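Hi there, hope your week has been kind to you so far. It would help a lot if you went through both lines with me. No rush at all, and the record is pasted right below:

***
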Amino acid sequence: MSVFYDSLETRSADERASDLAQALPIQIANAKENTCAFSDLLNDVDAAEINSIDDLTKLPVLRKADLVEQQKTAKPLGGLSALQSKNIHQLFQSPGPIYEMGQRTKDWWRFGRFLHAAGIDENDIIQNTFSYHFTPAGMMFDNAASAVGATVFAAGPGQTQLQAQAASDMGVTAYAGTPDYLNKILLAGDEAGLDLSAIKSAVVSGGPLFPQIRDAYKERGISCLQCYATADLGNIAYESKEMDGLIIDEGVIVEIVTPGTGKLVKEGEIGEVLVTTLNKDYPLIRFATGDLSSFMSGTSACGRTNQRITGWKGRADQATKVKGMFIRPEQVATFLERHPEIHKARIEVGRENMNDTLKIKLETEADNTKNYHETIREVLKLRAEVQLCSIGSLPKDGLVIADLRDHG
């Protein structure tokens, strides 16, 4: 088994940037020409001028929250698929409801790279406990197993005792599923006196992988790695055996921006994850996942050279109700656009004497607050205390709106 899935994983920064400069204009042109949604969104965009991550910031953000309404008016996928309906192999439904597509072509969701990094190959039998029903996770990992040549036991979730029995009978060597469900299978096997020692690898997603559960698997001789993915985008980033952050997949471009905006944060700061895919069938451009993360400096010790992210750090949708009114990160972005001298803003919601309080902290070199109160009332529809802060003094936690009230 080769160390790397393909040569893309070990490209230099210059090689990756050069390849991106060629691939990105093609993808933008494909989205404009072959999807109804991006034909409208990118109508005034010259695809030839979009050839870097910095150029992407000129484009609008596509928010996952908007897909529900979009898909009601343009069925089944909101005009985002570049394929005619008759050429789409699979459709799925996730909570929302939001509908996604899938194709049977090799490694279409790009999880094969993750399985390869975990050491899974044609010698493995992988027990896939992700659901094959409604949501795409089961097919995602089934497709990935096929890409690396592994045999699949299409178990789906539930029936834990039968899962353990089947794993023992078949000599299953690898597991795919949520982080904690493997532990239930192992415990069921212990109770039944079954031999599950052939399981050596676990690839997990769909929930937090706590250190104690990973350590428990390690004690049993099982290497457990995680990936970050969504039903819409497929694999976004994954761990290698070095477990030193999540390596961005070679088929996507990741930006991390201040929530509610399309503006890039500084390296190391937490922000919202935006993803652009290089998938020509389903070309999602600057797709806002609603998740928070941050970039890590340097590259993985495993030799893969793409950027890494730290993993999931919370949700970017920080909409908060104050005095009966919702305030949203998008409103903070509008406020900042009107005052370019402000470097960063943070709203803190508190409670004093049974009443909500609103404080807006601003990183700026300005020496008075008089220019800001009118804009705040106009944009937020609320009055707020304004506090001026020195540049770089606000927390770098990705929060634009911090709700400090005790909700019990």
Observations:
- The mean pLDDT is 93.
